[in-house]
Amino acid sequence: QLHSDQDKGDGSLKYILSGDGAGDLFIINENTGDIQATKRLDREEKPVYILRAQAINRRTGRPVEPESEFIIKIHDINDNEPMFTKDVYNASIPEMSDVGTFVVQVTATDADDPTYGNSAKVVYSILQGQPYFSVESETGIIKTALLNMDRENREQYQVVIQAKDMGGQMGGLSGTTTVNITLTDVNDNPPRFPQSTYQFRAPESTPLDSPVGRIKANDADVDENAEIEYSITEGDGYDMFGITTDKDTQEGIITVKKALDFENKNLYILKVEATNTHVDPRFLYLGPFKDSATVRIQVEDVDEPPMFSRPAYIMEVKEDVPLNSIIGTVTAQDPDAAKNPVKYSVDRHTDMDRVFNINSGNGSIFTSKPLDRETLLWHNITVIAAEIIHLPQSDSKLALKLGTQVYVNDNAPEFAMFYETFVCENAKAEQLIQTLSAVDKDDSYNGHQFSFSLAPEAASSSNFTLQDNRDNTAAIFTRKTRYNRHETSTYFLPVVISDNDYPIQSSTETVTIRVCACDHRGKMLSCNAEALIHPTGLSTGALIAILLCIIILLVTVVLFAALRRQRKKEPLIISKEDIRDNIVSYNDEGGGEEDTQAFDIGTLRNPEAIDDNKLRRDIVPETLFMPRRTATARDNTDVRDFINQRLKENDTDPTAPPYDSLATYAYEGNGSVAESLSSLESVTTDGDQDYDYLSDWGPRFKKLADMYGPMDSDKDS
């Protein structure tokens, strides 16, 4: 309550209030100066209010005293419960942690005044989660309270923490939060095989690196703590098999490292070990983090193809061996326990000419055709060995290389090229005109040595001499001073070439020498029989080619003229109706039987009414041939004879078009017992038709009899 010393109680003064909440939260009685609160105050919203009050003259409005300031403080009461900063906390710790291991810290705040009483003093406690976890009452730190908590037994825990003010005393307000705690995995479990012995079967034909079986050791841990590495530690198949780890399934895959052989060994015993790749030293006391198991692998017998004693054979033979000579033997055996007999054959895809053959019983290879080293030096053939008791996949193939060696001199030497040279008419004696060389298809151990000489028949009478140079070459020289090409234009000089191998082989080769005119320097100008230099005129071949071109051009012109002449025969009827079949569409239905004014349709019935003098309308008439007149068919002519007659006439008509033509004839014939039923014939008669006979023809003509019969009866009546 405010009161001024100037207030005499006569109502001349008035109290006014200003400041925080004046007129809203706080009001003042202007007559008495009493200050009152209009609503409940909350310290957490505003703890202090500053007000200013003053007394003024009611009539003049002037202050009678200086303005006074009032500070109003709101005293706190415990009206707010503690609030956690999170509704739900999530935390994780490794399994097997020691007691007292920090998990997480929770925090709760109280909006009450911490300086006034215990309203804001918060104390933490655990409502759910014992005996696994504990919480410090003042700090809110959650710790483990139980030793060796195992994730494999329980992984998730839910802890409820309470925060209470007033220092935890009775009457205090409280709030709670939930903490979800997860135990993370550590490698505290070694791998363990579910069984001590595994058995697998593998055919002896199993390819290398192929899987034989899978084994798996179980590990209760997860992720990298459960990764396992498998190895073969011992056993009689230590070098025959290998094992790898499937990273997705953590299985051990046993594979074949070397080829299996049932006949050699049919059972292998292995010891396989599974070891963790990530071992935690803290838990080594729990035991060795590995386990072992025994694996028995039974090799199954498979019918295998015969095996040759060697992977490949190379044989050499003389090229002059007689036919059916044995040049070598191949050997193959059945590797199976049955030891079935083997038969041999030659793969004819590799010996298309059937040069070689083989004894199917003992594998002896012999020749069936003569050999020629100069034609083919090496023969690569394939020999097939198969069991006589033939089973699928019981064949085996072997590569065989046969070579023919030169032990026989069976080829005579010959010129290295064809020699054709010339001699000048003004040549001098002993003048070199050509040097000769030779080759031999045969080989020689010491190198070839050829000798050259003139044939006996030319040695004395020849106009030339031959000199052997002793280096596998020979030189031809002139024997006389001058030559006359008009007397002899060409000389043929026979030369004998011999080798020095055994038996000695020789051949006679011919050198062609032409006599030519030369200048003073010995350069050839021309020869009598045939100029060796380029002629100035055209050769015979060129003349023949020009003549052939002229003939082809003339033939082309004649064909073009014939085609132009043929094009002039264009049809007279040029319209969309012209389909080259002599059918003319009139699109005129007519007026029926009563219409006799359109055209005389009787001509379709009577072939004799056709005017043979009318020309064809589809091509231009030719004046070269006169139209032929054909004999008209009699009324009693059979339809087939009539058509055949017309067909023959069209085939023999020289004025007919070159394309196919369809000739249509509306001739019915006279062979019908009931005669014609067509109304086309009625136009040629004057009287009415009598259709009473239709009723006598049976049920098939009943409809026609009903249509025409009553009409006739009406007329009779």
From TrEMBL:
Protein origin, superkingdom: Eukaryota
One cellular component term (GO) for this entry is: catenin complex
Membrane association type: Single-pass type I membrane protein
Biological process, per Gene Ontology: adherens junction organization; calcium-dependent cell-cell adhesion via plasma membrane cell adhesion molecules; cell migration; cell morphogenesis; cell-cell adhesion mediated by cadherin; cell-cell junction assembly; homophilic cell adhesion via plasma membrane adhesion molecules; synaptic membrane adhesion
Please list the residue ranges annotated as the Cadherin domain. Answer: 4-84, 85-193, 194-308, 309-415, 415-525
Tell me where the transmembrane regions lie.
542-563
Which SMART domains does this UniProt record tie to the protein? CA
Q: Name one Pfam family in it.
A: Cadherin
Subcellular locations according to the entry:
Cell membrane
> GO: which molecular function terms?
beta-catenin binding; cadherin binding; calcium ion binding
* UniProt keywords, alphabetically: Calcium, Cell adhesion, Cell membrane, Cleavage on pair of basic residues, Glycoprotein, Membrane, Metal-binding, Repeat, Signal, Transmembrane, Transmembrane helix
Q: What does this protein do?
A: Cadherins are calcium-dependent cell adhesion proteins. They preferentially interact with themselves in a homophilic manner in connecting cells; cadherins may thus contribute to the sorting of heterogeneous cell types.
**Name the UniProt record assigns to this protein:** Cadherin-6
Organism expressing this protein natively: Dryoscopus gambensis
The top of its lineage is: Eukaryota, Metazoa, Chordata, Craniata, Vertebrata
